[in-house]
Structures are given as structure tokens and as C-alpha cells.
Amino acid sequence: NIERIKQMTFNSYELKILESLALPTQNNITFEDIGGLQEIINDLKDSIFLPLEAAKHFKREPSKSNNEDLFNVPKGILFHGPPGTGKTMMAKAIANYAGYSFLAIDHSILDHKWYGETEKNVAAIFSVAKKLQPTIIFIDEVDSMTGNRDSEHEVTTSKKSMLLSLWDGFNSGNDKIIIIGATNRIEAIDKAFLRRFERHFLIKLPDEKQRKQILQIILKDYVDPDFDYNQLSRATNGFSGSDLKSLCKSAFNSMYYYFYNKIF
């Protein structure tokens, strides 16, 4: 909680990272806010939350402490697919459901113009995540910082090597930290990073049934119970979830201005 954070000591780099932090009490995105992706949500619950619960009830013998833990939660999850399909919302919902802090990393932090600053920021990301664990580190457009390392700048190579080293460090320990990446271009991600994302989830553009489910969530408080969701879902082929939300916002803005001009 906030009081716990106030009692901690942070350096200047960590304080900058804290600006991107959302505590569990500050994150209100739930799985119920996400339409059309129930199959992926069920898979996530099985692969993340079931091991978390199991670990509470089954204790390993000390002699097995160096063996692979059957209840390990994946330390790396990758969401890939077209833009606007709910990858960021899914990451936030995971954090909310699990009671993890949510640390969204801005690319400006990872691409500093001064030599050595990027590496210090990368180190601060992991140190903050460790201090405030359980924590989810979320990196949107992760391909832009974990792309193929052939013929790239020396500073970029150094940043990636450090990120891999820090990632491996908490992978080998008991830290409650999960890295979630999101990308529209999975093919552009370096293989070394892909291996560390233990679970990959493809989030496609929604089909007609999924679009209906998304629209029902967006419009549930704004339309009559007999509203024809089927017609609208058929008419929006090729729309992402983000496109559907923008469409609904545009429609309601148009309606508001129409009645406003009529009245005034």
C-alpha cells in the first residue's frame, strides 16, 4: 500500500519509475471488462492463478528446493496480435485479479539519449518491481526494445544484455515478478527474449460473436434492453475492440450535439 511505499528508500531512477506504477487498489480493470476473450482468460487462470493457489497448500521438501517447482507461475507472458484487441487491458486485468502492482514501462525510459542512463533505468525497473512485489512489469510494443540484435547499435545491445541478465536473475529466484509483453510484430522479437516469454497468447481481431460480447460490455449502461446488438456486430466486420469503443463514443457524441443544438 501507499504507506508501505512511503517507508521505503528509492534513488532518483527508481522514483522516476514509480511514476508508472499502479498499486492493486488503483487498478480497476477486471476480466469482466473484456469481451470475447473468455477462452484466453480461462487459460490464464489455469496457468497463473491455479499455481498461485496450489503453492499456498503444497509445500516443497527442502531436499527438492533446487528442483523444478511444479507450481511455478510463468515469469514471462507475451500477448501478440493486431492493435486495439485488448492486450493492455488483459495485462491490467491479470494484475487486478492476482493482487499484483502494475508497472507500465514507457519507451522513453528505455531509450535515453545519454550513455549509461538507459542501463540505470533498466536496473531501476527491476529494483522497484522487487521492492514492491508481487509486481507485473508491462512492456507495450516490446518488439521495439527486444528486436533482433544483428547490426544494431552498441548501446542497444548493452541494454538488451542487461535486461536479459536481470530477467534471468529473478527467474532463478522466488521473486513474485511477472513480465508481460505486448506486440503487433512477434516476428521482430529476438529469439532470446521469445524463449523467456514462457506463454504466448495470440489475440486476433474479434469475430461477429466476440464483437457482440464487446459491444454488450461497452453499451450496457447506455442503450435499451431490446437494442439490436446482432445487427451492429454484423455491420462491424474487421473492427477491433478499440475500434468498436471509438465507434460508440462517436455515435454518442453525435447524438449529444444533435440534442444540444435542438434545445439550445
TrEMBL record:
Record Pfam families: AAA, AAA_lid_3
Q: What is its main location?
A: mitochondrion
Query: Which top-level group of life is the source organism from?
Result: Eukaryota
| Lipid bilayer topology | Single-pass membrane protein
Give the Gene Ontology MF terms in alphabetical order. ATP binding; ATP hydrolysis activity
Task: Give the record's keywords alphabetically.
Answer: ATP-binding, Membrane, Mitochondrion, Mitochondrion outer membrane, Nucleotide-binding
Q: List residues of the AAA+ ATPase domain.
A: 73-207
Its annotated compartments are: Mitochondrion outer membrane
**Which GO cellular component does the record give, naming just one?**
mitochondrial outer membrane
Query: InterPro entries given for it?
Result: AAA+_ATPase, AAA_lid_3, ATPase_AAA_core, ATPase_AAA_CS, Mito_OM_Translocase_MSP1, P-loop_NTPase
The reply to whether Flavoprotein figures as a keyword in the UniProt entry is no
One BP term from GO: extraction of mislocalized protein from mitochondrial outer membrane
Query: According to its UniProt record, which protein family does this protein belong to?
Result: Belongs to the AAA ATPase family.
PANTHER family noted in UniProt:
AAA ATPASE, PUTATIVE (AFU_ORTHOLOGUE AFUA_2G12920)-RELATED-RELATED, FI08533P-RELATED
This one is known as: AAA+ ATPase domain-containing protein
Origin organism is Dictyostelium purpureum
